[in-house]
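Appendix B: complex inputs.
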Amino acid sequence: MQKTSMSIAVVGSGGAGSITAGNLLLEAAARSGSYGILTRSVGPQIRGGEAAALIRLSSEPIDSICDSYDILLALDWKNADRFAAELPMGPHSLIITDPEQGAIPAVIGGSGAQVRELPIGKLAKSINKGRPNMIALGVLAEVLSIPRESIKAVLTKQLGDKGEQVLQSSMDTVTAGMTAAQDIAKQPLPKSNGSGSGHWLITGNQATGLGAVRAGVRFVAAYPITPATEVLEWLATALQKVGGKLVQAEDELASVNMIIGASYGGIPSLTATSGPGLSLMMEGLGLAVSAEVPIVVVDVMRVGPSTGIATKAEQSDLNIALYGLHGDAPHLVLAPVSITDCLFTAQWSVYLAEAMQVPAILLSDQYLGQAMAIIEPPEAVNFKAARSIAQHSDGEYLRYADTGNGISPMAIPGTPGQQYTADGLEHSMAGTPSTRAEDHALQMDKRQRKLDKFDYGDYWAEIEGAGAHAIITWGSTTGAVREALGRLRAEGIDDIRMVAMRLLSPAQPGKFRQTMAGVSKVLVIEQSHSGQFYKYLRAHYDLPGESELFHRAGPLLLRPGETADQIRHWRQA
Amino acid sequence: MNQIAETMSTTPRNPAEYRSRVQPIWCPGCGDYSVLLEITKALAALELPPEQVAIVSGIGCSSRFPAYSNCYGFHGIHGRALPLATGLKVARPELTVITTGGDGDGFSIGGNHFLHACRRNVDITYIVMDNQVYGMTKGQASPTTDPDWDSVLTPGGTGIRPFQPLVIALASGANFVARAFAGDPEGTTQIIIEGIKHPGFSFIQILSPCVTFRPEQREWRNQVRPAPVPTTGDPSVAAKRIMTDDGFNLGILYAGDRPSYQTGLKDGSMPASELGREFVL
Amino acid sequence: MSGGKQVNKSTPVINSMTELLAHALALEIEAVARYAELADIMAAHNNQEVAGLFKKMSQIEKLHVETIHEQIDSRQLKKLPVIKYQWISSEGPETTDLADLHYLMTPKQALHLALLNEQRARDYYQGIRQSTTDHDTQVLAEELAVEEEEHVALLQNWLAKIPVTEDHWDHDDDLPNSQD
Ligand SMILES: Cc1ncc(C[n+]2csc(CCOP(=O)(O)OP(=O)(O)O)c2C)c(N)n1
Ligand code: SF4
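Resulting structure:
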């Protein structure tokens, strides 16, 4: 099988600039037509920590990390052994190392990779203001046959405002790297069609913010937390451009309540957080359910419990998102199935929340959120916030009227004659607090009916392939599953369908049953220690035939190769 | 001052316009009834159309307030009224936003929001009906309760010093700090009027007796008195006065001129459809 | 039960009849509304007896409003002046303090509050009668004080017919409910 992707890691600590080199390499490759993904792995230090830029470049769009690395370039090896588990390598791999930086750690060197020494530090010193990471960039560009012009274009964009001299010295350094690498065997990037023009370079967190603004979000309350902060930061600037407002809150209890207040005022509103913040928001989410105020809470999941591992992904907030609200509290839970899909799913989430006057939790994760990807331009979709609004009238206004589809027109403060009190206490149709069983039954039915009667179209899941076997997955693991199935198909195995769920709550058992027609065997794939998704499926759906679970806790993401192995194994069993 | 609308040809609004038909659950004699009267009087005097006013609260006896008014209302969750109100006011600055609640709601579970609301100085009027007790949960000590007040939950008292809401509001940056007494409709109405008119965050502590769990507070009406000094705009003067009085001086104790938080959704020049461009290679 | 609101202000200075009538009207109107509200509060707490009594007081005060209107008409006054009201307490003299309620209060206690209101109104008018420098106002204040004195006497009669409040009138075996 022809190789369609290559993976490169650049490691280095404190001030080495490995991440910058990686970013530049990604963008330069993008300009040569490649698709790709860059993820980062970093130590716990704020500054001076060890860091690795993990880049996968491909001739086709990709959603997943690689199986192993083709090239590892080390600017230094300080603490680099921490990355060993994330840097699978083999005899096909090439390690480029600076002898000045000492020996390759055994856990990395032991992979059998070939080693090539280059005096990276010395080369950098030979150039005025030369920096080792620019040497690295040149070396990698040379080995990967990325044209010099692509590097220059990227550097010009990044450094253009720092003056001609800075740009020149950087280019000189890159050139020195290229020259030094001339005798290293070339490993040209797999050729892609096209020049990359029109492709997008975006992170999932940015895509999430973009989707939200496109749907009409104009108020955001923010409390920073890794790995969600970039959603908020991106929105801060975006709202200045398109109009709107972001308020930095004192905590997540405040941020969720602020967006409830703004949305009650008629403005589509959103916040983003991660597990610890989501835990704090639960009571507020329940309020939004009861008072029927649309809001969207983006949870960029990281490894839990508690503070866990802030910089790594896990799909382990599914339970709290589905079940964390006290009482019966029907609400929406959605998850993007790829970096690109963060845009669509965020936009759709806002649309759904607004249409049904209900809170939506959007479960992204650290991988989807923080990975920087080169993607096809996302298709523009038309989902816009459109709330059912009560117009001025002289009759008695029933805010929580019992309507056929459960959605009751909402009065926006300022509208004369429609004043009501939104309430987290159980209430009558008029909104007045009530302890009556009839009122509770009516309002609960209404809250559930809103979600049950809504037409979600085909967006509830991504369904690919056909056959008697089915893989069910969700969120970021979809990328690895999709790629694994592609490989199996290339091997001639084409009796497996994939169902990647985008809408997790409300469950769609009817649609699921149709989708599963003819399936006799199910494999559930997810990234959690306890199999949260599997248990969710068992609770809400009829899984046809035998079902099995392939799962692992974070922080190590599922790789397509091991996923393919698991699937092969399961299919044969 | 105490203008009764019915007789006044020049006062088009009647306090009754601001009352809903919902009957309060408050105990007969509770100070909160008077506060309800005072707020409606203030709104009438300010001639604010009820639909332009939003009253936002948390949980507690005093937090039941919004449903009893004929304004827009939000009865939220315990301690979180201020952020809810902040979101609303920032998104809809043309509305008059009033937050009501109790000392437990505002100073205990919501204490952090209280500090930051003062700091942020959004143009909201925050009215705390302080009865030095958790009324709704059957009489436990609140942050403003005296250390030796006996309760089932804290037999013999909490032994801890009461929270000083006015000084804390002042230190945190509130632009208007006042103390009122529920049983003084004239004075309290006037203070609420001034608080609503004053730009920025106005904090009004209204001593509001809980006749059920603190029946001795019925005596407050014999203890309160107008503060014997005029309003000051000097925080250090205000701080000294507030810290040295006995908690029964009524009046506007501080009125500052710190600029309010910028509310409103900024207008943008770029259509949202163009935002994606920054990602195109 | 404590006894009514504080009289904590000095005697008003009222030197015109229209101004006095405006005060008279306002204080009766306030009393009507307050009694009605007290009736609602007591009804909501299932003390129907006292609720009924307050309702009755509200109706009586409504008649007084009419009486004042008649006075205004008989003097052919078209418009009352726009004024700042001058009371001797925080609200009008005939207005019951909302703080004076108790959910178990007896009709006797309720009537006693009403009596205090009428006495306060009488004192209010008497004060004006003494302080005013205007002759017509003085005459009117005297008339109004006499009327209130009649109400005081009526209420005293009524009170005499009502059983005394027993000790432990506020006893309740049950604990308060939590509604949080
Ligand atoms: C998260 C949460 N914790 C506890 C409660 C129970 N609770 C309801 S009201 C209240 C205290 C109310 O006291 P305060 O705010 O002083 O108001 P008051 O009833 O005295 O007017 C408590 C503890 C709750 N509703 N929510
Ligand atoms: S318990 Fe206290 S605070 Fe609550 S309504 Fe009764 S008197 Fe008022």
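The two ends of chain A are 26 Å apart (CA to CA).
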